[in-house]
Amino acid sequence: MRTKNHYAPFMKSLLSLHFFVLLLVSTGLRAQPTRPVVAHEPPTSVVAGQPLRVVARVSAQEPLKEVNVYLAQAGGAAPVTRPMQSAGAGVYVGRIEPEFFSALNEFRYYITARTASGAFTETNWSTVQVIASGKGQPQNEKGWQRPVLIGAGAALAIGGGIALATSGGDSDGGGAVEPGEPVDPADQVIIRTASDNVDEAAPLLPDSTIVDIAGELAGRTINRVRVRIEFDGVDGGFEEFEASYNGNIILSDTTATTITRQIDVVGAEATAVEFRVTSSETVDGSSAYSWNGTFTFFVK
Known about the structure:
Mean pLDDT: 77
Oligomer: single chain
Order of helices and strands: HEEEEEEEEEEEEEEHEEEEEEEE
CATH architecture of the largest domain: Sandwich
CATH topology of the largest domain: Jelly Rolls
CATH class of the largest domain: Mainly Beta
Strand content: over 45%
Structural class: mainly beta
Number of strands: 22
Low-confidence stretches: 135-155, 167-187
């Protein structure tokens, strides 16, 4: 005579619950696609009657489905969409016809990127001033002009160039417009990004990253380089970092929190920028920090 197992229904339910939880966990892990990263240098102004070309470098771990620019003519106006087209090497270009802003003093825009699996990101709003034709620029020149940062920091000679630093740790990189030397970013800006996330007991320092565009100039020359670093002292310990260009240190700081530093070097022609974390304070037996860098080479 067989003895009835009173625990069998309970064990069966427990096993079913176990497999259900495993299914939820595995499904949740697969459903977290990595968001694309958009590196963009917004223009400060455009000349009325001339088209505006918005340029961004978009990187993603999977194929991109679309990159768009959204424009608003006023603060409360619903934005209109303009698609951005791939120009190769991760660069996307959007053309804004002058009819959109011909009667405005300024307008705003932001950029979005979406991957094939639906991962999505968007930039902050950027404001563009509309300059009347003939003010600050010859009529036969293009609408893009070289922006030069004029911050509280002093100008510094750097190996044949001039470094102009922004003031403060949270600058968005805005600045005044210097007449002459038109720049069309679709053809004359090379943008590269780099980042790192460290959490180790004894990281090898200095931790160096080199960004070099020597193979991408195609006969062009560099007339300005912009370095922007977003640094996060994750564990609250103090880190020291620096960037060097043309054999000189152009940017350095010490932080235990989150800061942003940016600098322009005008007139030098070196093709490489080196970023280094030179020291890191140990907290609870490890050193933890992260950073994101955007390196913009203005060429002609």
